[in-house]
Amino acid sequence: YERRSDIYEAFTSLAASLVTLNQIRRFC
Description:
Blueprint: H1 2-27
Protein name: IS5/IS1182 family transposase
Organism: Methylobacterium pseudosasicola
């Protein structure tokens, strides 16, 4: 089940990058 944790980690980082991107768009 270690792979599942890796996938979850990748999904979390992807979601975090999306949120950061949305915040940057707000500044513009």
